[in-house]
Design a protein that fits this description.
The chain is built from 15 helices and two strands. With 386 residues, the protein is mostly helical. The chain folds into two domains: 246 residues, no CATH class; 102 residues. It has a two-stranded antiparallel sheet with strand order 1-2. The protein is globular and about 75 Å long. The two termini are 19 Å apart.
Length: 386
């Protein structure tokens, strides 16, 4: 699917001078002041520690708080956790929870729509990265009709009403206070305050821009979202964006155990401590189903493109093998559907015995194993014929 912009409506929208000033002056100040201070005075260990600590505190308040907690409600958190995420989220200077989450929900609803998506990647890298913030585009206007639940959240509304005061006190007060405590006021302020702020901004914006342009699409190609492990490293796990756009209600983005997703790990640790609950996960079978559907789609496409390289007989043989695998795929899904319906009915009637529960789980694992084997066979077919 092409990522080239297909339209550029409302390019003459009025400039948002507050955002233009902030997002122009902060990187310029960091570009000039940080190297100068480093050359003339040098940075202490505490200054670098403050950079890393504040970077992760603010970044993960956006990912674990603004995004996975408030925008998608993939888990529930203790009020103490919610307050911490709200405060450091304000320090990230990316607008209030209410505004951020409302815009993000709209992005998911109309993703890639060049007129309605607040930061549509189809309007180009610059627009989706930060151009959408610098002008008052119609697609970016606040409409909280999709965030009534957040308007009933006292922590969200406190942060929204006092956002400016929280932003100034955290971005100026926290670095200065820590710098005073460790005896390096300017070093901590420049690294933990200024440079950290600029890096936080661009790391988050990479998800709106690069994560819709660079990477793989193992789960769906119905939108521009991509999985990218490099971006996942920079964005605290958010780089597995193709998975997220098809399974947005899952508290994980890096669904594999080996994928780098510190936001997921934070949520799990909080649950162990009793500070998070109701962690939502999509069934593994849904994930296998999405991956297999994409593999079938790509295999068919590859065979169609390479028709000239094969004789009709060889091509038909390849297509017959793919058709057999697809029939097995559909059969496994139908069995899963029947098992699930029976499981829900039995649970509702309170008639499920322990041995029946064990039998259900065992068969479910067998179906999941069959789908994993299908994926391996399909890869082999693709290598052999496509």
């Amino acid at each position: 699917m092409s990522n080239e912009p297909t339209a550029r409506p409302q390019e003459n929208a009025p400039i948002n001078w507050v955002n233009m000033t902030v997002f122009t002056l902060t990187p310029l100040a960091a570009l000039i002041a940080v190297p100068w201070y480093g050359i003339v005075h040098g940075f202490s260990t505490w200054a670098w520690v403050s950079f890393v600590v504040f970077l992760y505190a603010c970044g993960m308040s956006i990912t674990a708080g603004y995004h996975r907690l408030w925008s998608h409600q993939t888990y529930q958190a203790h009020p103490a956790v919610r307050w911490v995420l709200a405060v450091f989220g304000a320090m990230a200077l990316q607008n209030s929870i209410l505004v951020w989450a409302s815009q993000h929900r709209r992005h998911h609803l109309v993703v890639d729509d060049v007129e309605k998506d607040p930061y549509s990647a189809r309007r180009g890298f610059w627009f989706s990265h930060m151009g959408w913030i610098l002008r008052d585009y119609p697609s970016g206007q606040n409409d909280f009709s999709n965030a009534r639940d957040l308007e009933r959240d006292p922590i969200v509304m406190f942060q929204h009403r006092h956002y400016l005061a929280l932003t100034l006190s955290t971005n100026i007060g926290f670095p200065l206070a820590l710098g005073w405590l460790v005896g390096d006021v300017w070093g901590v302020f420049l690294l933990g305050g200024l440079l950290r702020l600029v890096v936080n901004h661009h790391f988050t914006w990479f998800i709106n821009s690069l994560a819709h342009m660079w990477g793989s699409q193992p789960y769906t190609d119905e939108n521009t979202a991509r999985d990218n492990p490099v971006l996942a490293f920079l964005t605290y796990g958010e780089g597995y964006h193709n998975f997220h756009h098809i399974f947005q209600n899952d508290y994980r983005n890096g669904v594999k155990w080996w994928q780098f997703d510190p936001t997921k790990w934070l949520i799990v640790v909080l649950s162990w401590m009793g500070l998070a609950s109701n962690l939502k996960r999509v069934p593994d079978l849904w994930i296998h189903r999405a991956q297999l559907a994409m593999q079938f789609k790509r295999t068919e496409h590859a065979l169609a493109k390479r028709h000239a390289r094969f004789g009709d007989e060889q091509l038909e043989r390849a297509r017959a093998r793919v058709a057999e695998e697809y029939a097995a795929f559909r059969k496994a899904l139908e069995e899963w559907s029947k098992l699930r319906e029976q499981w829900l009915a039995d649970r509702k009637q309170r008639l499920l015995q322990k041995w029946e529960e064990t039998s259900f789980r065992l068969r479910l694992k067998q179906i999941e194993a069959e789908l994993r084997m299908q994926r391996r066979r399909l890869r082999a077919i693709s290598r052999a014929y496509a």
